[in-house]
Design goal:
Layout: H1 3-18, E1 20-21, E2 41-43, E3 50-54, H2 69-74, E4 78-79, E5 93-95, E6 120-122, E7 129-130, E8 144-146, E9 152-155, E10 164-166, E11 171-175, E12 188-190, E13 195-198, H3 209-212, H4 217-229, H5 234-240, E14 243-245, E15 250-251, E16 267-269, E17 276-278, E18 291-293, E19 298-301, E20 315-317, E21 322-326, E22 345-347
Parallel strand pairs: 3-5, 5-6, 6-8, 7-9, 8-10, 9-11, 10-12, 11-13, 12-14, 13-15, 14-16, 16-18, 17-19, 18-20, 19-21, 21-22
Antiparallel strand pairs: 1-4, 2-3
Protein name: Putative serine-threonine protein kinase plant-type
Subcellular location: Membrane
Domain Leucine-rich repeat-containing N-terminal plant-type: 9-44
């Protein structure tokens, strides 16, 4: 890269730094002519241009907390995210996770990063409020979108792109957009603990990656992207890959029959909603399912016998619904009564209720 380009990127980063609060001086090392040597900056090995900005708080969360909250707070960046980032023309990885931008909205200009080649956007746990900028729907190159645990993000979800979408623990409302299914090679859907309403889109049955699972080319590319970012995220990606978590919302209607075509699905969590109707008779088609949580809904009817054919299933929760009839005897490995409690009309082992 010519020196003029380096000057533009260095000035852009210094303008970005100027808008931030930095109590612990994490960015005090941003000195010198070559910004590629600055902490948190990554550059392309061939062109020398800035392609990565990773300013995630280095304090790691353990069981949802930190050992030293005061030190964590001092390490948080805050203030204003400056639009000078638009001058980083080769930026493809932006991570500002675990900082504190409380009281501010996600900047509108981030939606204009579509002019760049941004593939990863991590804004988790920053206490942003307000809506997601509508232009985020135009960030077509995104492969990872993580806006989880901001607590105060609200409004409807725009048609987001990305193969990994984490929007949990916010205040999003309205229906789940049909754009959820675009692109079809989506590996993680986590919209849990929001205020979403309406039904589960039938188009979920079209999500290609949840059919082919971890063997898909998209999944392999996603893991490579994460490994190039932070290796400690690898286990989280693998553990939660091929999952749908819509728990803790206000969703209504039935479970779409199309969902049973997702033969690569490993985790399905629809708990704590208002979902009604019956458990799908052919739920046994989800042969790779490892975790199924349908608890605390309004499901009725009997437990389908095909559930017992899920040999990979390790965790099951059907509690607090309106299920009835005999618990299939083939479900003997799930012998904890709490799995079925709160269904007064269920009978048979492991419940104390004897069947007539």
């Amino acid at each position: 890269m010519v020196d003029g380009g380096k000057d533009i990127e260095r000035e852009a980063l210094l303008a970005f730094k100027e808008g931030l609060t930095d109590p612990s001086g994490r960015l005090s090392f941003w000195v010198g002519a070559d910004c590629c040597n600055w902490r948190g900056i990554g550059c392309d090995n061939q062109t020398g241009q800035v392609n990565k900005l990773d300013l995630r708080n280095p304090f790691q969360f353990i069981n949802g907390g930190v050992a030293d909250p005061d030190a964590y707070k001092r390490s948080c960046l805050g203030g204003k995210i400056d639009a000078s980032l638009l001058r980083l023309r080769d930026l493809n990885h932006l991570d500002l996770s675990l900082n504190d931008f409380e009281g501010t909205q996600i900047p509108e200009f981030l939606g204009k990063l579509r002019n760049l080649s941004l593939t990863e956007l991590h804004l988790r746990w920053n206490f942003f409020n307000g809506p997601i900028p509508a232009d985020f729907a135009k960030l077509e190159s995104l492969e990872v979108v993580d806006l989880a645990d901001n607590l105060y993000l609200e409004g409807q979800i725009p048609g987001l792109f990305g193969h990994l979408r984490k929007l949990k623990s916010n205040l999003f409302s309205g229906p789940i957009p049909d754009e959820l299914c675009n692109p079809p090679n989506l590996h993680i859907i986590d919209f849990s603990h929001n205020k979403l309403s309406g039904g589960i889109p039938k188009c979920t049955g079209n999500i290609h990656a949840l059919v082919y699972g971890n063997n898909s080319e998209t999944f392999e590319r996603l893991v490579r992207v994460v490994l190039q970012g932070r290796i400690d995220e690898y286990s989280s990606i693998v553990e939660n890959s091929n999952s749908i978590d819509l728990s803790g919302n206000n969703l209504t209607g039935g479970i779409p029959s199309e969902i049973t075509s997702l033969s690569g699905l490993r985790i399905l969590n629809l708990s704590n909603n208002y979902i009604s109707g019956r458990i799908l008779e052919n739920i046994g088609d989800l042969q790779k399912l490892e975790k199924l949580d349908l608890s605390r809904n309004h499901l009725s009817g009997s437990i389908p016998p095909s559930l017992a054919s899920l040999n990979s299933l390790m965790r099951l929760n059907l509690s607090y619904n309106n299920l009835e009839g005999r618990i299939p005897t083939d479900l003997h490995k799930f012998n904890d009564p709490s799995i079925y409690e709160g269904n007064p009309s269920l009978c048979g082992e492991p419940l104390p209720n004897k069947c007539p």
